[in-house]
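Predict structure. Chain length: 370.
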Amino acid sequence: MQRMPAWADAFLVPLISLVIAFLISGIVVRAIGQDPVEAMRIMVQGGFGSAYAWGYTLYYATNFLFTGLAVSVAFHASQFNIGGEGQATLGGLGVALVLLYIPWPHWTIALVAAMIGAAAFGAFWAAIPAWLQARRGSHIVITTIMFNFIAGGLLNYLLVNWMKPAGSMDPSTARFGEAVRLPTFYDLPLVGQYFTKSTPANITFFIALLACFLVWLLLWRTRLGYEIRAFGKSEKAAIYAGISPFRIIMLAMLISGALAGLMAINGTMGGQKRLILNAVEGAGFIGIAVALMGRNHPFGVLLAAILFGFLYQGGAELSLAMNIPSQLVTVIQALVILFTGALDNMVRAPLERAFAAGRRGGAPQGQGGP
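Prediction complete.
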């Protein structure tokens, strides 16, 4: 019997965990001599209080959507892919190669090609750890995290020695042509009147929303999705049912890597408009927290991605507006991750007992509880 209603598991547990995280963050802010109420007001205003704020919040959320979905798909196949950082890094390389060396007449055609390049490079970088796991028994956590460092080193080498413009000291490529510039929210009809010209959020956000829907469709409305979830629940039962572990591990990780690689469309093509070193900026690791907080469901991942986009943008405004070190923003983010991930059972267990007691108290007289 389910010990807690589905709505409580999906919404109430994360909400209470989030409130606890912010309360402890307020204590930390008070401990350094600042007003926690004012700090929260500045964060909310900085993350949601204007078109400028929303533009940056949704820009960051787009990155976290892709990496969160990447973690979720792999997790449903019992594969803990923590290599989103490296897969997104290689996705950026795929975007740059497509946009720098092929002339495109219009951004729409370039976008399709860049998406293919980003997904292909991200999937390739996930395929190697997946094969090592499926064929050699290598631990997916170890291999994916090591491949993050390999990807960073490889990109550094390519930028410094091959891809940076002649005479430039900056480890980055040349800017992409104006013909492939992605429209921002400001450029869109109807929406543009609510955003400023400096808004970084672009149409990649809508691609991320489409990815959410497609991942839901894959996992809960297709045979492959059923096999992925069945394998993730019980490998032995899946094998008994005729499901190939090698096939599921490879396909789940390829899809996961492709989703992580697609993050580069937002950052490299839409934001920086060139490939730079450290373009991912930790979004691959934040994707783990987003997936955990979103309960590995696409809709939950969407809400969690917006929350972490708010934390990034609101935290940046907070460090500028108050005498608060930027490291404190990282502490707040860490507390949210801690309580919604590692200490999830601290909230879940009391709620389960409360719901169980409520069911026993509401049982008809003369009947016992469960």
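Summary: The two ends are 8 Å apart (CA to CA).
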